[in-house]
Amino acid sequence: MSTQLFGLQLHAYGFILGLAMVVGVLLAEWLIKSEQQEEALFWRLLLVTLVGGFVGARIYHVWTDWPLYQYNLEQVLFIWNGGLSILGALLGGAIALCFTLAFETQKKVQPSGDKLEKKLFIFSDIAALCVPISQAIGRVGNYVNQELYGPPTDLPWGIYIEPEHRIAGYEQHGYFHPLFAYEAVGMLIFAGCLWWLRQQRVWKIGQGYFTLSYLAFYGLFRGGLEFLRLEKANWWESSLGLNQVILFAIGGVAVASLFLALLKQKLSSTPTPKVLGLLAMFCLGVVSVSGCQLSKPEDPYATPNPLSNAHKLLQVADHSTHSALVRRSATTEPLILNLEVVNTPQSIQQGLSDRSEIGSDGMLFVFPEAGTRVFWMLRMHFDLDMIWLKQGKVVGITTDIPHPQDSNERNLPRYSSPTEVDWVLEVPAGSAKKWQLQVGDALELP
């Protein structure tokens, strides 16, 4: 959603983000006054923190999406094409705050380390009280952009996603989990708890408890929600997202630090441990509900076929060619294909990029375990069909994927597997139809 004003293109998403920042800053200013802190220092710190957060948000995004930029480094500077990370913003803003506050206090009469630490916790606690509210408002922008949604659902609160905004492989679905809304509601509830703790004087600004509780909650809560994320950069070859691993690490360290801080202050006689316990249980519940299953339902595509064991193909030479037998439900005649197998992270990342032709019937990507896989056509020169497989069975087919016409890699569409897969077969466009492939067909290799 956008509109023209005085020749400028204004986007609703940008307006919502701006509103979120203004609300957060006004709340922080009110807290600064109520805590009788220096307003001039607050505004200086705010400016530097915003710049640091912006730079950190961009650097973190480029790091996690490096394949989009490694061959066109100039694209790193094209921020108007999108690409800012909330994790990077928090990290960059925190670093800028620490260095600036250290410089500001050093100008005084040689303050002690305790004074610097106290000042740092005052401003970080204020940020912890305000940032969750800004985050909740900002997530409304994801609804406007029809992004950050979860897997398909038939729940009453599922949101409708327009076909042009659906992730490849999910075009046949209309309603999805509103992942952005889950985060927004969770952050508002958490913010309400923090403001209640301040109002009741259970915790005081400057102790650092608000800061640690924010890091603990956001790390575990957002990390749990990442289990529902359709598009994410995976950590190594695991099913966990890179952001997810970092979030869980931050959350775990923050929980331990908060517990030790409370233990050190001997607050066992106050309501604080009770509040912390309830918060920990809530975070654990979110993680459990979002990403854990006590028992997995039977996979209709899984069959005990030893010939279709992906782990065997992990031992063959990378880029070696193998004959494959395809058993099809549309015909009794088996199909024989010569496939190039790639099974190392480097070869999987390179894929068919920079080639003028496949050179065989197709390229088979072999992963060490099943997981949601996301592909994009980086420097591709021909159209493709993409066949998604799990344990040798076809679980999805994405046809007629065009090679990119736009040189801006940030705009490349993503093509996601419809379910967890351990093999992905890329073949020339039109092959799936010519070969009469269907979901449920079996691919076997000797």
**Rg (CA only):** 25 Å
Mean pLDDT: 80
Give the count of structural domains: 2
Q: Secondary-structure element order, as H and E?
A: EEHHHHHEEHHHHHEEHEEEEEEHE
Structural class: alpha+beta
Number of H- or I-type helical stretches:
12
Strands in their spatial order, largest beta sheet: 10-9-12-7-6-5-13
Structure commentary:
This protein is of the alpha+beta class and 446 residues long. The chain folds into two domains: 2-34 and 112-291, no CATH class; 306-444, Jelly Rolls (Sandwich). Helix content is 44%, strand content 15%. It is built from twelve helices and 13 strands. The chain has helices spanning 12-34, 39-64, 86-106, 113-138, 140-145, 179-199, 209-225, 242-264, 272-291, 310-313, 345-350, 431-434; strands at 2-5, 8-11, 159-160, 175-176, 320-327, 335-342, 362-371, 374-375, 384-390, 393-401, 415-416, 421-428, 442-444. The strands form four sheets. Strands 10-9-12-7-6-5-13 form a seven-stranded mixed sheet. The protein has a two-stranded antiparallel sheet with strand order 1-2. It has a two-stranded antiparallel ribbon with strand order 3-4. Helix 11 links the parallel strand 6 and strand 7 (362-371). Helix 1 runs antiparallel to helix 4 (113-138) and helix 4 packs parallel to helix 7. The longest helix has 26 residues, at 39-64. The chain is elongated. The model is unreliable at 109-114 and 267-309 (pLDDT under 50).
